[in-house]
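ASSEMBLY PREDICTION REQUEST
Request ID: AP-0331
Submitted by: J.K., bench scientist
Number of chains: three
Total residues: 1194
Priority: normal
Notes: Please return the full assembly, not individual chains.
Input sequences:
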Amino acid sequence: MRELLRKPIWPLAALLLLNLAVTPSFFAVHVQDGRLYGSLVDILHNGAPLAITALGMTLVIATRGIDLSVGAVVSIAGAVTCTWIASSPDPASPGAAIAGIGLALGLAVALGAWNGFLVARLGIQPIIATLVLMTAGRGLAQLITDGQIVTVNNATYSGISGSALLTVPVTVLVAAAVYALVALVTRRTALGTLVEAVGINPEASRLAGVRSRTIVWTVYVFAALCAAVAGLMISANVHAADANNAGLWLELDAILAVVIGGTSLAGGRYSIAGTLLGALTIQTLTTTIYSVGIPPEVSLVFKAVVVILVFLAQAPKVRALLARGRRPAGPQPPPPAAPVPGGPVTDVPVEKTGSSR
Amino acid sequence: MAGSRPLVEMTGISVAFGPVQALEGVDLRLYPGEVHALMGENGAGKSTLIKALTGVHPVDAGQITVQGEPVAFSGPAAAQAAGISTVYQEVNLCPNLSVAENLLLGREPRRAGRIDWRGARRRATEVLGRLHLDLDPSSPLDAHPIAQQQLVAIARAVEVDSRVLVLDEPTSSLDASEVEELFRVVRGLRDDGVAILFVSHFIEQVYEISDRMTVLRNGSRVGEYRTAEISRVQLVSAMVGRELEVLERLDRAPAAPADETESPVLRAVGIGRKGAVEPVDLVVRPGEVVGLAGLLGSGRTELARLLFGADRADHGEIAVDGRVVRIRNPRTAIDAGIAFSSEDRKAGGVVGDLTVRDNIVLAMQASRGWMRRIPGRKQDELARRWIELLDIRPADPDALLRNLSGGNQQKVLLARWLITQPRLLILDEPTRGIDVGAKAQIQALVAEQAGQGTAVVFISAELDEVVRLSDRVLVLRDRKPVAELAGEDVDMDRVMGLIATGGEAGA
Amino acid sequence: MTALVERVRDVRRVPTRFLPVIVTFALFVLMFAGGGLRYDSFASGQVLLNLLIDNAFLVVLAVGMTFVILTGGIDLSVGSVVALSTMVAAALLRAGWPPVVVMLAVLAGGALFGLAMGAVIHYLEIQPFIVTLAGMFLARGLCYVIDLQSISIEDPLFRTIAQTAVPLGEELFLSPAALVALAVVAVAVYVLHMTRFGRTVYAVGGNQQSAMLMGLRVAQARVGVYVISGACSALAGLLFTFYMLSGYSLHAVGMELDAIAAVVIGGTLLTGGSGFVLGSVLGVLVLGTIQTILSFEGTLSSWWSRIVIGLLLLVFVVMQRVLARRGAAR
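STATUS: Completed
Returned structure:
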């Protein structure tokens, strides 16, 4: 929680306040047919796919990588599942849905492994390596659906998005579960530390014996899996697979969410909580635009403005310029490496890491 | 030439980076028509001095004059405009462009606004001809070996009519014939009256090419000498320095006279890599400290990296505890029980944005794989124990490593390896750039580790440290092993003599 | 893989930097010849010219993108700027502006848009990927601000340009847009190879640090390429307007990917410093040929083009990697 507070929470807070000003009932939540409804619930429900995709992207970016192919994987996951269900002998049976979902997740692992192969094994720049699947992936999805929008009528499948458990939408629960799982895995295993080590200093990590390739491979597979889960949600929400439009530009939103959340594109230290914050900020922005009454299409302008503001605020150069304006030409604070022989170093400001992760 | 006035005169130059004093009151004089060698070990301040001269670093104190006029360059471009060009070790040209373009980039002859390629080629041919370089001006730069690229960089400097040419370790990746070619060009320029500052750590080359030299140590000038008047041994002694105070004898059991019957921890036969180090045989027994002595670039670091698989050896065989192992990468070396602390702490060791605790357990964790995390309590216990054992300050496992001083970072890195309980510990300059207190602690630690039966390979630019700590010393020179000293033979004079002359005179 | 490297070594006489372009050219010839063997009316001069006519805007986009990528940058905004240009042109015409003024305004707007992005990238040191991503959102969003619907264009000059066929010989013709594209290519080749600005673009892509130390005008080059890319996007937008005779927010969705793919297939390194405008033109022609073959085939669905483009990207990316390793090994 302490970590969360250090993240740029102001865009989200500002958006929520704006909503409250425009729509006094914005924070109202009510139960209907055993499911929660309300603007906040909508934000969580609609933001779940982005939040999950951004989570996978976070780990990839932490290793100094990037995955442009997640949008394509989203569309492939929906396409595979819907096509499988539609062509199974009993398209309404739970078995067909489960098999289809399993197939989609399995395929996602293969696609992630492919990205990992290009990056870790062949040493191709991540942005280019994943561009291949970004370009071809959507074509593959269309190949699977034969260019059609495949609609399915399967209660089990629709349940991924439509149903609620204890009044909470399943999408929100799944997203929460995935976040909890990742938080748990990165805390209970050494994955988090090793991912950061590889991202912060690849050479030092190599010399310390870290199996960087395995790590890199793992994060790309995980990112693809996350994208597939998001794809299933998106497709289940509309009971159909739209290979052309499902997850379009999701990779860009996911990258934005990660960076808004305070994880640097240069790799290294990452923040899961920050990514969640970033994803919620983006989704709230979209919802706000609806609620304020601006045509939804114009939302892109606002998104652009928010992105520009957040990035300008985070850019070291801008901060330096601002600081210089405030503090006239003072001497730079000395770096903390103080070689005091044997003496105490108590005057050195020591940055602590948060205990929340 | 001795009577002429210096072209460039730097007096009382001081440069500090935060609390670190990189240069203190250094003088340097460059005369026209002379090759002036700048000598010094790692961290002596050579590159800082060059950067101060060329305007990359502002100076905190001191004055630079060119032809008697005080100057203050805002950057390399300003220095170049004043006739001072620098050719760096890593060639600062554009490998994707042609030789001619690299010579003329930014100054291409133009006709009616467009580049006159014919004229450019002619001009390039002229310049290359002046240096007697046989290169096709239209060939891409990266089609040529580094040596030729370096000559192109020099030619570019000549093209702007430089009066002062700074060559920053230009020969470090060249073979003998390439060095000859470079020297031919340098002599030609010298005879044309150019003042040349030549930075190198190859003693023979310096004696071959330079007329005068300035020696730096720890950011201060030791002296300026005429090359003809200083012997090799005097030079090495000036570079590495001898601490005059009585050195405390390290409290350690006298080395068990190498027990030939005891099976060695490490037996390397003919281990080498083209362009890095020629084949070396090395044996290290349990509890033994073997020092690698030699100047920077002698092959001491290169050999250590081969033993650890940081670079892959292209010949030779390594056996650990009598078993032949194929060291393909650091991972396999670690699995075989080898640990290696890199001389480049920042690039090859410190993971700055992780905590002290994470850094201490990193190698052990890497060996276990990411699935089997070292339990938190165990991590804390390890971190606390080693922080205490090595007196790491601040004694806070949650501090980020980048916020610690160099000496404390080094101790963390040592702890990283010691908790893996290696059979062979390779330490490359573990005491470089750290304060006296930490240095003594690390030396004591090395002795202690050996006392516990660990085999140690110890590298340091400070010879007295190597001599004091080592049971045996392997001396390297110009990427070749020249001699191995043991027992009574391990003393400063002998080691320095070998480094300076390669043993032709003595052994 | 080793065999491939050996083969590559055999053709050492050809400078490495030309190799990708030659491969692309061979690929184009092969594909076109393959099409000619399979379909009766394929191998005609007009089909070849149609490649240019149908992809004139993409050629212009790819030219701008080549400048950016040569410096090691990327411009994700080009597709959106194309759409915005169609919208601005259509809206201004609707508002009664004279057509020539409209064209100039659109071009100036594109250049300014690029200037703003380039300045942020260079002076504020924010990654090109992020800056142009924001530019992509902004331009696409501004389209919707202008109008949510498609605006059709009735202006006589625009219609005339759209419908004019410039005859070449007896039966062949080109469109004015294709001629504009060819002119842009010619100017780009001139600028890149005959001016100091062009050489600085290559130098910055080769080694920015060195370029700076050599005293080159790095800022001018780094900002300039985004201005060029912005202007090219606006011009491509105008050409696209001639092609579609409408302004619409959903025009040119994903066209930035086509432009990037054309540049990469044309042999330009995404890391910068190596590549040719003519390679990018060949890249566009390869993409166009894929489309043409698909349309001749009829039964093959359009998504195959994406898959094939993806595969081609893969081949070229791996090939460049192999060449780079070979370079490093030397």
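REVIEWER COMMENTS: The first helix of chain C runs from residue 2 to 10.
SIGN-OFF: pending second reviewer
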